[in-house]
Amino acid sequence: MSVKFAIVGCGAIGSRHAAVIDAEARGSIVTFCDTVSEKARLLSEKYGNDITCYTDYDEMLASTDATVVNICTPHGLHAEMAIKAANAGKHILVEKPMALTVADSMAMIKAAEENSVHLMVVKQNRFNVPIALTKQAIDSGKLGRVFMAQCDVLWNRHDGYYAESNWRGSKTLEGGALYTQASHFIDLLNWWFGDVVAVQAEIATRNHSIEIEDCGNALLTFDSGVMGSLTWTTCVYNKNYEGSITIIAENGTIKIGGPYLNKIEYWDVKAMPLQDDIIFVDKPNAYGKYQGTSSNHDKVVANVVSKLLNERHHVVEGDEGIMSIRAIEMIYKHARMV
Ligand SMILES: NC(=O)c1ccc[n+]([C@@H]2O[C@H](COP(=O)([O-])OP(=O)(O)OC[C@H]3O[C@@H](n4cnc5c(N)ncnc54)[C@H](O)[C@@H]3O)[C@@H](O)[C@H]2O)c1
């Protein structure tokens, strides 16, 4: 039994989807689609010349026998593409952020429900070793009441990252750095502490010629009562400095850090000491001149396959994916008011 995938968007992350599906024993790539035909053709050559390539998404949807469409295009295209895939009866694995607005996210969820297909969102950092351990500490009650969380996304994106792309830095297609860099972190805060219910924020564009912000600060209140702070930037000199979350709780303190939430910097939890033999295996997605967050897309795809074969799985669906979009919308709304 094999699950057939079609990948739309054959750029940085589409290539990673192709590699992990190719390595997944119960998955296969049947279709590539990219408006730049060369990008789809190169992946097709790499993973099997019989893989059909398209430049037109509607044509692809009308012809592909894929069960799942992996949406790996710029953020601003996710909603329309997901709704079209749902209407064509395809399951969807959409890259983060699922969309740029809550309204679009809700329309995607509705389309999936109406067509009885699954809308799944890539949240690969949930599989990072330090993240999974922290989830255990919270859910088991061993941390006790959580008081505060501090999140820092202090990264570097060089000028070429924006200049060489027709969508990065654009308000309509990228929306903001929160959607691209910080949404991974916001998803984890939502997963642990619930929806964001109140926000104060400020944003600024300090060191890039772009339409979106490259620096921001936000104070967040979660519906569990946890107080949070978020600082994000793409202005760090030379290379990513830190992606970290610190949790202050009744019975413990945890700091997850490293450049992409791959290390435990500090762990002091009363009833859950850190074992000596934990192996920290998470690696970054490397894209030439810059690095992203963890490369656990293999686990995302393996879980999508398990879900579609009716096995136990850890898949993030649209109703969870929308939480970070809701938080981001609130942050920008407040920041643009001040
Ligand atoms: N989960 C992660 O860690 C992670 C990492 C990187 C990117 N992403 C997400 O993946 C998405 C793509 O990012 P990227 O860095 O791969 O961008 P990219 O620019 O490298 O690739 C996007 C590709 O989409 C193609 N494309 C654009 N419009 C299209 C259309 N109408 N039909 C078909 N193809 C089209 C482009 O030609 C390009 O090849 C973004 O939403 C981003 O947030 C997620």
How would you describe what is shown here?
The protein is of the alpha/beta class. The protein folds into 2 domains: about 5-120, 3-Layer(aba) Sandwich (Rossmann fold), CATH 3.40.50.720; about 125-295, Dihydrodipicolinate Reductase, domain 2, CATH 3.30.360. Helices cover about 35% and strands about 25% of the residues. The strands form 3 sheets. A 7-stranded mixed sheet has the order 3-2-1-4-5-6-16, with helices on both faces. It has a 7-stranded mixed sheet with strand order 8-9-10-7-11-12-13, with helices on one face. Strands 14-15 form a two-stranded antiparallel sheet. Strand 12 and strand 13 form a beta hairpin. The longest helix is centred in the C-terminal third of the chain and has 20 residues, at about 320-335. It is globular and about 55 Å long. Bound molecules: nicotinamide-adenine-dinucleotide. Nicotinamide-adenine-dinucleotide binds near residues 11, 57 and 293. Nicotinamide-adenine-dinucleotide binds near residues 10 and 124.
In short:
The chain is α/β, with parallel strands linked by helices and 338 residues long.
Secondary-structure map with pairings?
Blueprint lengths: L2 E6 L3 H12 L3 E7 L3 H11 L4 E3 L2 H7 L4 E4 L3 H13 L3 E4 L7 H13 L4 E3 L7 H11 L6 E9 L4 H5 L13 H17 L2 E9 L10 E8 L4 E7 L8 E8 L2 E6 L5 E7 L14 E4 L2 E5 L2 H12 L7 E2 H20 L1
Parallel strand pairs: 1-2, 1-4, 2-3, 4-5, 5-6, 7-10
Antiparallel strand pairs: 6-16, 7-11, 8-9, 9-10, 11-12, 12-13, 14-15
Helix pairs in contact: 1-9, 4-5, 5-10, 8-10
Distance between the termini: 55 Å
The major sheet is characterized as: 7 strands, mixed
Helix content: 25-40%
Helix-strand topology string: EHEHEHEHEHEHEHHEEEEEEEEHEH
Strand fraction band? Answer: 25-35%
CATH-defined superfamily of the largest domain: Dihydrodipicolinate Reductase, domain 2
Tell me the CATH architecture of the largest domain: 2-Layer Sandwich
CATH class bucket of the largest domain: Alpha Beta
Count of individual beta strands: 16
Structural class: alpha/beta
Mean pLDDT: 95
Determine the CATH topology of the largest domain.
Dihydrodipicolinate Reductase, domain 2
Cα gyration radius (Å): 20 Å
- Give a list of the ligands: nicotinamide-adenine-dinucleotide
